Amino acid sequence: MNKLVTLVLLVLFISCKKEKQTKEVALNLKEYTIEQFMDNEAVGGGSFSPDKSKLLVSSNRSGIYNMYTVPSSGGDFTPITTSDSSSVFGISYFPNDERMLYRADGNGDEIYHIYLRDIDGTITELTPDEGARASFYGWSHDGKSFIYGSNKRDKRYMDVYEMTVEDLSSKLIYQNDKGYSFNAISSDKNLLALSKTINTNDSDIFIYNRTDKSLTKVNENQSSNSAEDFSLDSKTLYYTTDDGAEFSYVMKYNIATGERKKVLERSWDVSGIYFTHNEKYMVSFINEDAKNVIEIMDMASGKNLELPDFQNGSITSVGISRDETMMRMYVGGSNSPSNLFIYNLASKELHQLTDVLNKDIDANHLVTAKVIRYKSFDGVEIPAIYYLPHQASAEDKVPALVLVHGGPGGQSRQNFNSLTQYLVNHGYAVLAVNNRGSSGYGKTFFQMDDLNHGEKDLQDCVEGKNWLASQPQIDASKIGIMGGSYGGYMTMAALTYTPEEFAVGVNIFGVTNWLRTLKSIPPWWESFKEALYKELGNPHTADSVRLRKISPLFHTDKVTKPLIVLQGAKDPRVLQVESDEIVAGVRKNGIPVEYVLFEDEGHGFVKKENQIEAYSSILNFLDTYLKKENAPVDGEIPVKEIEAETES
């Protein structure tokens, strides 16, 4: 009995202490500018130099992404490229020398080319074919070549090429005439793992033998499958599948006998695995309730490594050196941008290489998201990520936003997002919904929105608004909706088909005319086109009637609430005309509309000055029309258009 009393008192003490700390943060909370939030640095990648003395990374510290090196033991970043127009993303050091590969496109047009930076600083474009995109697939096991894809022969399909390290000569090793996607290559370079997406939950995998030109299907049943890696001896293929299950697990396939065996299963999707260079470790990624969980198994013992404990942060990605002694990893969370660490797998020595949060920002002022679930109109349980401002209380209610992810088929994750934290810091609650059709919650849930977009998935968002309205800290009359790409479509669908539910809409490069979007998808999406048609509808058939019905552009007369639209002129997925026309259509209603257009961005804004312009415009719009602190007087309807330009 005494133990029970002690436990209850301890719980009460911790609860009171936490409540006191929360109140102290709210009292001392500082509102930060968008410039301060965007002064957080974003760092990505991390290729070890051959001697492991440094890493090649990408960072946006200059305002756009460039390549840098940083010592493995910690120290200053050394700039390798100084682009001031197109972003540069580092790919890798060469395996045995300090030459570097990187990629860049034309200000967001997604036509990536691969470049070589030589040891003397000379830059060579390795894939110069105009209008053709290239993708780096990986180094050969012997380090004498790398594998890449290019659609220079046929813009619809990515052929597979091999380029030698010694003389940079290139040869075609697989001509892709059937729309397959490359997944992996065996150590002896004789076997290619290919996949073919059929529909939402039907993707097949094949093994192509370069010697006898045979193509062998690996999976037996209709299911979602992805080839992950070959064994070092090239005798086994490892792949993920959800055959007979709700969530993906890992199978291994004996290439000679056709025998299959399950090797890894968790209660969530195992989203991918790979082996380190000499197969000492198997690295696995588990999508656990919208958060990455990483396991590293020692192949000799069959046991998982004990990784460092980062308290409130989690390891989001890892990369292991070619000699399998060093690991780089990123650690972050919903309230912390990811930092780069180096970990010695033998000595357990740990070095933090970055501290990317702006020094002006008190980390205690950021909000840790929590996962919540609510019932939708038909009883389906909808997961969501909830950010509640520190200053919110039952006495001081705050406005809120339903945030919808991209896709279709995407997922809101427990990751740091500068825009979300910026809005929360300024007093807006955010509920990032994972409506039906989102990935990560089983294949039944994933398929629930097939051929009913803008209907049941939209109702999930409305029920998210209703959940927010029921919270004591939320002003139920001030709830808006926001999203990008598919989330932008959902924003416009909400304002069009449920015009009285949300107070405002924030449409970030959202689809508004499915007929045009599905007809104008980039040519390199050819291999996914049929799958898109099966999920959304075929614009060339009778499906066009339904696609027109669910396209907000044809129903703009129903929009009655203020709207802001943001768009990149170089966007190859959602064309600028989508945003141009929705703005023009809604303005005919006399509704306040703001339009922010960036001439040098694509599907997503990557340049800091553009992000600052975009995010500050969103906050100003919300402060005017959602908080209504500066609402226009009756009869006065301001209409504002911003065109942001930067030199290209």
In short:
With 648 residues, this protein is of the alpha+beta class. The strands form 8 sheets. Strands 29-30-32-31-33-34-35-36-37 form a 9-stranded mixed beta sheet, with helices on both faces. A 4-stranded antiparallel beta sheet has the order 1-2-3-4, with no helix packed on it. The longest helix is centred in the first third of the chain and has 27 residues, at 2-28.
Give a written overview of the molecule.
- This protein is α+β, with helices and mostly antiparallel strands and 648 residues long.
- It contains eleven helices and 37 strands.
- The strands form eight sheets. It has a nine-stranded mixed sheet with strand order 29-30-32-31-33-34-35-36-37, with helices on both faces. It has a four-stranded antiparallel sheet with strand order 1-2-3-4, with no helix packed on it. A four-stranded antiparallel sheet has the order 5-6-7-8, with no helix packed on it.
- The longest helix has 27 residues, at 2-28.
- Mean pLDDT is 92; it is low at 629-648.
- Residues 90-354 form the Peptidase S9A N-terminal domain.
- It is an enzyme of class 3 (hydrolase).
- One of its GO terms (molecular function) is hydrolase activity.
- Its EC number is 3.4.-.-.
